[in-house]
């Protein structure tokens, strides 16, 4: 599938006039390519840049084929980079701080694979695992890892604008990471998966005390509350604070846990409703739970 669009398609997606889109293109607000015949074409990456800079979002995603883009798996065409090449390119671009290149790779992967779960599990996760290993070996500098995280957060927030706004009647999923866990990407990715599956979401962010997470749950009464755990400094303290949180969570709220820090030794000591090892599992769970209860 071609991931570039005509001004008319963009106008329908944003629910503005086609003349407005053409005017934005002509004055450079939307970066635009031209066909051999001189017709305007707007690549997905350029559209994402425009949405971010103007704080706009897609109103009608079907107008640009977002439903097909997220539902179809497309085999790489001849001459196009394979997944392994894109992974290496994304890692290099993040380490170089080349946000434009990262955006192109991000957009291409999202367009050509099965929604955000593939982007998270097959691109973001292996790249940051490699960057983390490089940091431990002294090959990657701390600033490179932090900058890479910031770039990826911005790219996810740009994609978030492409996901149709859930209805006010959609179930609410809420969550974040506990104290001492400053990893934003897992909890942001969790929010993105739930939104793709039609949930309203409230990502509380990273490094939040369990007492504060509990206050949020009690005030807003979500259908589901997630706890993303990528780092545990003191296992005993974590288990004590988590147990206090879980035991006081209002009845009826589904408690979901996940994250690389929840080892086979730690997880059995915790009480929860569901656990996911990756975003694909989460996507299946989110779809299953949206209109029904958690199976006994």
Q: What does this protein look like?
A:
The chain is of the alpha/beta class and 296 residues long. The protein contains twelve helices and eight strands. It is globular, with a radius of gyration of 20 Å. The strands form two sheets. Strands 5-4-6-7-8 form a five-stranded parallel beta sheet, covered by helices on one side. The chain has a three-stranded antiparallel beta sheet with strand order 1-3-2. It has helices at 7-14, 18-26, 44-54, 66-71, 83-96, 99-112, 115-136, 142-160, 184-196, 210-220, 235-248, 279-289; strands spanning 4-5, 33-34, 40-43, 172-176, 200-203, 224-228, 254-258, 274-276. It is 51% helix and 10% strand. It has three domains: 4-69, Orthogonal Bundle (Multidrug-efflux Transporter Regulator, Chain: A, Domain 2), CATH 1.10.1660; 83-160, Orthogonal Bundle (Methyltransferase, Methionine Synthase (B12-binding Domains), Chain A, domain 1), CATH 1.10.1240.10; 172-289, 3-Layer(aba) Sandwich (Rossmann fold), CATH 3.40.50.280. The model is unreliable at 67-80 (pLDDT under 50).
């Amino acid at each position: 599938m071609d991931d570039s669009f005509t001004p008319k398609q963009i106008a329908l997606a944003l629910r503005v006039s086609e003349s407005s889109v053409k005017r934005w293109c002509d004055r450079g607000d939307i970066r635009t390519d031209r066909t051999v015949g001189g017709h305007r074409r707007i690549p997905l990456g350029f559209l994402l840049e425009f949405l971010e800079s103007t704080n706009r979002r897609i109103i009608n995603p079907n107008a640009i084929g977002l439903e097909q883009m997220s539902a179809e798996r497309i085999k790489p065409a001849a001459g196009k980079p394979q997944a392994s090449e894109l992974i290496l390119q994304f890692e290099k671009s993040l380490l170089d701080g080349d946000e434009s290149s990262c955006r192109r790779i991000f957009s291409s992967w999202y367009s050509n694979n099965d929604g955000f779960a593939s982007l998270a599990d097959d691109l973001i996760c292996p790249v940051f695992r490699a960057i983390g290993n490089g940091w431990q070996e002294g090959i990657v500098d701390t600033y490179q890892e932090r900058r890479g995280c910031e770039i990826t957060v911005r790219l996810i927030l740009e994609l978030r604008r492409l996901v149709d706004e859930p209805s006010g009647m959609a179930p609410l999923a809420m969550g974040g990471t506990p104290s001492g866990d400053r990893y934003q990407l897992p909890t942001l990715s969790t929010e993105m998966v739930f939104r793709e599956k039609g949930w309203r979401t409230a990502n509380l962010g990273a490094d939040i005390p369990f007492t504060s997470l509990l206050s949020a749950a009690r005030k807003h009464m979500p259908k589901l509350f997630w706890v993303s755990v990528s780092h545990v400094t003191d296992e005993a303290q974590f288990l004590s604070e988590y147990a206090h949180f879980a035991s006081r969570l209002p009845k009826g709220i589904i408690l979901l846990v996940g994250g690389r820090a929840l080892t086979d030794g730690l997880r059995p000591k915790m009480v929860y409703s569901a656990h996911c090892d990756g975003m694909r599992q989460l996507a299946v769970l989110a779809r299953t739970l949206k209109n029904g209860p958690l199976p006994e």
